[in-house]
């Protein structure tokens, strides 16, 4: 009889939640998506931020391949966290968020407030934020996994990621 191994991923605790929320303060992320035509995976570096309620969001160009991909299939994932200057990159914390993308319409009455909020954290975006091909995308978390370093893995629900 095969003995079942214990799950190495623990439920999020207060300390893990604090670390995840700190990683979510990043200004960029890696975005994983599925190509609309080939269904093959792709990864893009995107500008990343949180809206005023703490929901992840991005400002993306309609010219980027991930825009068409997210419009066809809103399922995506984000990777947040950078390796430190020293040591093994795999020992530094990182957060993978499974999400669902939803585009904010250009005429959405909340867009001016989103725009102002975005520019506080991304002031250089003033160069392109109003170009017609750029759109805000809300990346609503579904679940997440935090690797907090060697032997420190945690599972999160969407609610665990709310401030």
What does this structure look like?
The chain has three helices and eight strands, in the order βαβββαββαββ. Strands 2-3-4-7-6-5 form a six-stranded antiparallel β-barrel. The chain is an alpha+beta fold and 163 residues long. 18% of the residues lie in helices and 37% in strands. It is globular, with a radius of gyration of 17 Å.
**Unreliable stretches, pLDDT < 50, 5 or more residues?**
none
Structural class: alpha+beta
Biggest sheet statistics: 6 strands, antiparallel, barrel
Q: Order of helices and strands, N to C?
A: EHEEEHEEHEE
Number of helices: 3
On the 0-100 scale, what is the average pLDDT?
A: 92
Number of strands: 8
Cα gyration radius (Å) = 17 Å
Strand order in the sheet with the most strands: 2-3-4-7-6-5
What is the 3D form?
globular
DSSP helix fraction: 10-25%
- Alpha-carbon distance between the termini? 45 Å
Q: Beta-strand level of the residues, as a percent range?
A: 35-45%
Please describe the topology of this protein.
Elements lengths: L8 E3 L2 H10 L4 E7 L6 E10 L5 E6 L3 H8 L2 E6 L13 E10 L7 H11 L12 E14 L5 E5 L6
Parallel strand pairs: 1-8
Antiparallel strand pairs: 2-3, 2-5, 3-4, 4-7, 5-6, 6-7, 7-8
List keywords for this structure.
single chain; 3 helices; 37% strand; globular; alpha+beta
How would you summarize what this structure contains?
This protein has helices spanning 14-23, 65-72, 111-121; strands at 9-11, 28-34, 41-50, 56-61, 75-80, 94-103, 134-147, 153-157. The termini are far apart.
């Amino acid at each position: 009889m095969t003995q079942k191994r214990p799950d190495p991923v623990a439920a999020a605790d207060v300390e893990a939640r604090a670390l995840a929320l700190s990683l979510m303060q990043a200004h960029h992320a890696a975005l994983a998506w599925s190509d609309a035509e080939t269904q093959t995976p792709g990864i893009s570096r995107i500008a990343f931020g949180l809206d005023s309620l703490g929901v992840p969001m991005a400002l993306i160009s309609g010219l980027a391949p991930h825009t068409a991909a997210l419009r066809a299939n809103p399922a995506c994932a984000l990777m947040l966290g950078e390796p430190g200057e020293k040591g093994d990159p795999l020992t530094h914390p990182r957060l993978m968020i499974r999400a669902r993308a939803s585009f904010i319409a250009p005429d959405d009455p909340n867009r001016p407030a989103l725009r102002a909020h975005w520019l506080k954290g991304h002031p250089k975006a003033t160069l392109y934020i109003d170009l017609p091909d750029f759109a805000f995308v809300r990346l609503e978390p579904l679940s997440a996994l935090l690797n907090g370093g060697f032997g420190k893995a945690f599972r999160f629900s969407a609610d665990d990621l709310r401030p």
